[in-house]
Amino acid sequence: MGKINLLSIEVANLIAAGEVVDRPASAVKELLENAIDSGADKITLEIQHGGVTFIRVADNGCGIAREDLIPAITRHSTSKISKASDLDSIFTLGFRGEALAAIASVSHLRIYSKLQGNEMGCLLETYGGASPSITETGCQEGTTVIVEDLFYNVPARRKFLKKDSTEGSGVSAVIEKIALSHPEISFGFIYDGEMKFLTPGTGLLRDTIWTLFGKSLASRIIEVSREENGVSISGYISESDFVRNNRNMENFFINGRYIKSKTAQAALEQAYQSKIPADKFPFCVLNISIDPSLVDVNVHPAKLEVKFSNEKIIFDAVYYSVLTALQSDVKRPELRLPHERDEAESHQKASADVYRNAFVPMEGRNKSQQTEQVRLNDILNALDSGEMHPEHKSSSHSGGNTYKKSDGYTQPKKDFWVSIPNHEAHTGPSPVQESHGNESFSSHEKEEKPSAYSQAKSESFDPYAIYDKPILSSEIPDYLILGEAWNTYVIVQLEDRLVIFDKHAAHERIIFDELCRKMRATLRGSELESQLLMVPMEITATEGEAEALENYSEKITALGFAFETGKTGPATYLISVSSIPTMLDQDESRELFEGLITSLSDATSTVEAAAVGFFESRLWQASCKAAIKGGRSYDRNIIKWICDRLLKKSDGSGQVIRTCPHGRPVAFEIKKTSMDRQFDRLG
After folding, report:
1. What is the CATH number of the domain that holds 589?
2. Rg of the chain taking only CA atoms, in angstroms
3. CA pair distance 478, 436, nearest whole angstrom
4. pLDDT band for position 6 (cuts 50, 70, 90)
5. Using an 8 Å Cβ cutoff, are 623 and 509 in contact?
6. Residues 327, 366: one domain?
7. CA gap 319, 265 in Å, rounded
8. CA 30, 36, 42 angle in degrees (round to 5)?
9. pTM of the entire structure?
10. Is residue 347, in this structure, part of any structural domain at all?
11. Among 232, 266, 251, which residue's Cα sits nearest to residue 605?
């Protein structure tokens, strides 16, 4: 007797149902997608007990004809496609013809549907997908699907469901993401009799974000819009100082379909690198529009994953669209006084714990790199092709470099990359008030001994160590330095607001941005110089990594690497690296090379983005060491120099300084109107 059994239709349907519907959230997803495909502009979801006992999805779409109701719950029946070639250009969310069949086989299912213009509708009812009955009934135009007692006939599946609150949270996440993908549709969500939300359906994504996440988040987002190489990116991202502890609020959509994409995720997070703490994540709602023939949505049973024909253009599109949006962000965070805070700010936990781990090392940095500067002088020498001379000076800066006078400021001659000099002791009082353009302090300055808060040693520092080009006076707004709290926080008055900033964090970001600007220009400008290794560096690679190396060999060579690839086994390769970039030692070169082939093989970076990220992770240490320190007193010209650059008027192409390279906040502002309200000075 043979051992292979031909399964019955009932058993096969139960097995298939497990692939499509494994919990209430997956059933809800399929039903909502069908409702969207029906052309509805109003969709209501109601669940009870996390969706285990009751799910109702009602829409005002086109409806289902009586003769189509039974085929609708039959496997592999669909109105979305009819031939194999249709799979190359799928515009609908559903297309497999499995959703209703899978749900029907594991529940008590009822479908009420009426075509637009008809007087009567129809009701289909079935238990476990068996013996469906159809009767005429009165109902609203469109379709209402009711699912009760999910997995009642599959106890093995039901016992693995989590508690109702957990399953309900999964359903909430599904409808939130679908509502974000279709802001033109009004979605209502009722949970155990309580209306959780009702989106407006205005077609404006910001309105939907406001409804779902509240005013505090919706007021802290930046619009993203970019089209290049046939890929369009649109949506919103969070400001760089508005972060989360996990990736749960990173939302990506491909042609209106929610997806999980390592490529898009990596591109987003690399664009935020050096702008947020290493263990924090941004919020985003990004829709990727692309020719449907260039993406395969049929690679995952739940359609959560897709396959792009060219991952690189997707990475580039997301990376550069987010980076451009962040660089054009010209708003500085506002400190809201107590009476102005909105209850919706529960979504925004703007407390110190968000930044408590701001100094967590960046990904890929080993222990030695956390504590010591990594051949920074070599990096800086290579970046400027010999023009910069980062030599450590043992003398004070008055005797180390030659300076000239320009526009009333002391500046070094073309010596952009100046290493940290020994600091002269500074025993004078710290500045308390200064007017822009006026070298003298106000009468509020007092010659008195430092307070208990300023007993830390004070020092003089050369702020022009990163001087590149002068700032025009017209680019700087009129401001007044009111003073400094605890020798750390500088308070500045502008025409309509106060700005309070951390002087160390601000100086660190200014230095870092200039270093990165030079570094990016060098990486774009020409090939980097190489140094020949006496003994080649050997690296073992997988077949995928070797293929990626071959595809991007020209760009990797431009970084200063020379290599050969040989096969050592059925799926293993040996890469022999004979030359490395002059700016890196062998260990650093290995780290960069291995990181490149790994990220390229799994499509989570490009050569350019990976190289920039690698060098940025080194430059942040230089900027931290070179910046003035909090708790110490410095010459007034240093503070003024920082203020000029921090407050420089944006021309629309430059980002307001918001965070230091570690992701800690740099500055916030308090509007005059806010203070007037606080003191009841406004009528």
Report:
1. 3.30.1370.100
2. 31
3. 6
4. low
5. yes
6. no
7. 9
8. 120
9. 0.68
10. no
11. 266
